[in-house]
Amino acid sequence: MTNSLLEVRDLRTDFLLKSGRLRVVDGVSLTVEPGQALAIVGESGSGKSITMRSVMRVLPKTARIAGGSVRLDGRELTELPERQMRQVRGRQIGMVFQNAMEALNPTLTLERQLTEHLSWHGICGKAEARRRAIETLGDVGIPEPEKRIRTYPFQLSGGMRQRAMIAMAMVARPSLLIADEPTTAVDVTVQRQILDLLAEFKARGTGIVMITHDLGVARYFCDDAVVMYAGRIVERAPVRELLARPSHPYSTGLFRSTIEVGGRDRALAPIPGAPPDLAQRPPGCAFHPRCERAESVCRENEQMLLPLTVNGVSRGTSGRPGAVREAACWKVAAHG
Amino acid sequence: MALAEATEPTGSIEAVKARGHWAGAWARFRANRLAFISLIFCGLLVITAIAAPWIAPYHFTETDPTARLAPIGADGHWLGTDMLGRDLFSRMIYGLRTALFVAFGAELASLVVAIVIGLSAGYIGGRVDQGLMGITDVMYAFPSYLFAIVLVTVMGRSLWAVMLAIGISSWVTQARLVRAQVLSVKEREYIEAARSMGASGTTISFRYILPNAVGPLLVTTSFAIPAAIGAEAGLALLGLGVQPPTPSWGSMISEGTSYILAAPHLLLFPAGMFALTLLAFTWVGDGVRDAFDANGESR
Amino acid sequence: MVDVSDVAEPVTTERAASERPVIAAEHVDKVFNTRAGEVHAVRDVSLAVHSGQTLGLVGESGSGKSTMARLLMGLLPPTSGTVRLDGLDLSTVRGARLRQLRSQMQMVFQNPFGSLLPHYSAAANVAEPLRLHKRGDKAWRRERAVELLDLVGVNRRFVDHYPRQFSGGQQQRIAIARALALEPRLLVCDEPTSSLDVSIQAQVLVLLEELRSRLGLTVVFISHNLAVVERFADRVTVMCMGQVVESAPTEALFGAPRHPYTEKLLAAILPVTSDPLPQPDISWRSSPDQPSALVEVAPGHEVRES
After folding, report:
1. Hey, of C85, C133, C141, C164, which one would you mutate to test binding to chain B, going by the most B CBs within 10 A of its CB?
2. Are residues A194 and A235 in the same domain?
3. Distance from CA of C66 to the nearest CA of B (A)
4. What domain range includes position B201?
5. Which residues in chain A are contacts of C224 at CB distance < 8 A?
6. Residue A151: domain span
7. Interface touch C197/A253, C-beta < 8 Å
8. Among A8, A21, B220, C207, which lies 20 to 30 A Cα-Cα from B237?
């Protein structure tokens, strides 16, 4: 078996509440290859952010990884001591957030933040660190990086701040970048620039996990997608195929809820109801109360994530190695 | 109809009962056992203070010349008597009455003043704000004990003077808090929404802003009450409290220290009750704070 | 004797009303004095929305679109220029009369939880505008509130719940019910769906679409999302840095955008079923300090010269 860049198997994460354990990530498996981008699509509360925070082990105090494995370049992360995990986070995984102010220290200049990051992790010496910091700032499209490196985050505009955060994530040249809704808080005209910028890192071989609720962003930027609902993956597919032929009723519903320019003739068919409260997770398939195709089997049992087949043959994917189509739905699997 | 069907609420809300801001805070308060027991204790204290003439076996001025410095369990004086033969139990009950009267009176008055001043300063803003906050800052900078001394000297050692002396040092903090609360609530979208519905300034201040500022106010008030009880005793200890023979725990404690060897109960009982009362009120305050803190982060 | 004027008057007012826009802004400017100095949020904006029409107001953050919404609602006074509701200059009315007038124009805000009174139940929130305008008695107001909540799809069983007990989508429904309580002629929606989840966004839009046609509302719809505006508006005005850069009937604007900034906005959209448009090579930089003229390039299609 070849080693993928990131291989998550059956990951489970719980929140410890007064009332007991609440499973927020339930048996998630995913793979990311170098130079590939995976979209984790889902609405708020679907567990998409907690999944990746479990991978990085930067969970809130009340959350625990309950099981499963996370391998980065073949190395198991869930059992790594915190000290080594910190090294992994600094050197091998970078993270980009929705809000740049969350990731940047407002009281330090960009120079200190970027160079300290490098020297803390013992990546290089001071002079080299400064050179690399300037280079990375230039890479993320900040004009006059030699000058801007001396500014504080709040002195930058929103778009520039987002770029500075990306520079921060990329300065150690990590092999994996986790981007959590990196363009949700920026203006529409900036969104595409940011994505194009991330695409350059992707082209250089960085594997990227993009957490997003925006199917347009997923289509533009990512190769593969997993759709999450109530802490589980309900569908996995190459992103273009997912959008061309969504299989799981939830994916179909998300697609039909998306409004796009020129799509005036496409009827807007919202999914009824709202995502479930995980503490009162519906029995069987968690989506069944909102699903128009639900039958008695859906109300009673949960279907596993199974490969989609047509007449017993794996339904065609683009032929790219590693590209799979799977869905967790009784109706889909039964009709094959 | 398709519309109605599309919008059936999710299951989650059904399990939850309609519960307001207050109901939630009360439920959390009640779940806090220490706070709840303290509240019951404080309630009993208040009832005792109100019903003092009926509960106390003697009037606080009544002397029993046959039993001076009577020990605990003496005939007719089960907590004993002081050096003038006055019943200690009765005097403690009346002392409680003084303490609570002064504390609640002072805090109530200061709350009213604070709400009026803080609300006007915060809501109207501009010059009104600057003027009112200027006055408040001057008052804040003035040492409160000095103020009390001046007041008591001018007005005499009456209950009202003590109440005023304590109330004046307390409204300043409260008014600043009200103003800060108003300023933060004022920026909330629902105030703008209320304006767009056509609500007037007074409606907005009293119906929308104030109820949402009450939580923090209640918290500081519940901490201010034990502080005021302490201040009353403190003033009495300095000889600035209410005019004897009206009993005050502060003066009782100071008298008790003189007889600490001959009659230690004269010090122990007032001091013990004083400490217990302060603790109980403070624990109630803690409970109130926790109850409202959790509310703040809801959703 | 028959009083002719009595019969004739409704006819003339009705005709006048159909010609006169429900809401109109004429050369409106808004300058904020902040600690950092003057901020010119809105510059010389004119627009008009006729009865039953929907105007989409599009722009990025800092374009002045939200300020414009508040100017139209009379929540902010313009620094210069006039805003007219049914021909009446809002700056000439004050106090109680202005509050009275507000019953004809209502607003739906971006953050539904923030815009609802937290200490009022859903029904009390919806009944509040009725109480403020002294409509009916308490029992009637409650009944009306429940009816309105029913109309927007909030189940009767939950009308006594408090805002924080509802999901975001449900909260926005309550806010919409409240905005409709006074039967306003004009509804101003400021990014009503942008804080909601994708599947909920669509629900709320479908609801607004349906209510609009059922109640014949005049709507100003503010959004940064061009796709939503395309779907919802009859006419679109694009704002950038406080100025109108292009204003046209929806089809014309999306079919044949004239202003480079509009093109840039359109190219920024990432569609779900097709590839995005190529980025325009002309980079347009607005220089609001040297204002250029708005030119009518086709009937009803105005573009700022660049």
Report:
1. C164
2. yes
3. 13
4. 32-52+79-296
5. 187-188
6. 93-173
7. no
8. B220
Whether A269 and chain B come into contact, CB under 8 Å, resolves to no
Say which of B6, B8, B10 has its CB closest to residue A276: B10
Q: Is A273 on the interface with B (CB under 8 A)?
A: yes
Domain residue limits at C289: 24-304
Domain count along chain B: 1
The edge-to-edge listing of strands for the beta sheet with A224-229 is A93-96, A176-180, A207-212, A37-41, A224-229, A232-238, A326-327, A306-307
- Condensed to tens digits (0 to 9), the pLDDT of residues A69-81 reads 999 999 999 999 9
Contacts of B7 in chain A (CB under 8 A): 272-273
Report yes or no on C89 lying in a domain: yes
- Against chain B, the chains showing at least 3 CB pairs within 8 Å are A, C
Lowest mean pLDDT among A181-185, A268-272, A320-324, C266-270: A320-324
Which value, in Å, is the radius of gyration of the alpha carbons in chain A? Answer: 21
A76 & A188 share domain: yes
Please give the single-letter amino acid code of residue B156.
G
CATH classification at residue C194: 3.40.50.300
Which pair of tokens denotes residue A305?
């994530």
Residue contact C129–B6, C-beta within 8 A: no
B6 and A272 in contact by Cβ < 8 A? Answer: yes
Whether B40 is in a domain gets the answer: yes
User: The complex's ipTM?
Assistant: 0.82
Closest-CA residue of A relative to B13 is A277
Total structural domains within chain C = 1
* Lateral strand order in the sheet of C301-304: C105-108, C186-190, C218-223, C54-58, C235-240, C243-249, C301-304, C294-298
Average pLDDT, chain A: 87
> Nearest-CA distance from A126 to chain B in Å?
43
Residues A226 and A245 in one domain: yes
pLDDT digits (tens, 9 = 90+) for C134-186: 998 999 999 999 999 998 888 888 899 988 888 888 999 999 999 999 999 99
Coil, helix or strand at residue C242? coil
B143, part of any domain:
yes
Rounded to whole angstroms, how far apart are CA atoms B100 and A116? 59
Structural domain contains residue A237:
yes
Q: Does the beta-carbon distance from B12 to A280 stay under 8 Å? A: yes
Measured CA distances, A157 to A160, A187, B135, B187 (Å) = 5, 11, 41, 24
Query: Is the minimum CB–CB distance between C37 and chain A shorter than 8 Å?
Result: no
Number of independent structural domains in chain A: 2
- Is residue A188 domain-shared with residue A307, that is, in the same domain? yes
In this predicted model, what pLDDT tens digit does every residue of A208-254 receive, in sequence order?
Answer: 999 999 999 999 999 999 999 999 999 999 999 999 989 999 999 99
Distance from CA of C274 to the nearest CA of A (A): 9
Decide if B22 is inside a domain.
no
Interface probe for A, chosen from C198, C234, C266 (most Cβ of A below 10 Å), is C198
pLDDT digits (tens, 9 = 90+) for C120-133: 999 999 999 999 99
CA nearest to C107, candidates C193, C215, C219: C219
pLDDT of residue C8: 39
Question: In angstroms, what separates the C-alpha of C26 from chain B's closest C-alpha?
Answer: 21
Q: Is C68 on the interface with B (CB under 8 A)?
A: no
Please write the tens of the pLDDT for every residue from A321-335: 556 888 898 888 554
**Alpha helix ranges (H) inside B18-87:** 21-31, 33-50, 52-55
Is C66 near chain B, with CB under 8 Å? Answer: no
The residue type at C118: P
What does R_g of chain B's alpha carbons equal in angstroms?
24
HEC string of B215-269 equals: HHHHHHHHHHHHHHHHHHHHHHHCCCCCCCCCCCHHHHHHHHHHCCCCCCHHHHH
Cβ of B12 within 8 Å of Cβ of A279? The answer is: yes
Query: What does the pLDDT look like over C42-99, one tens digit per residue?
Result: 999 999 999 999 999 999 888 889 999 999 998 889 999 999 998 899 888 888 888 8
Residue A1: inside a domain:
no
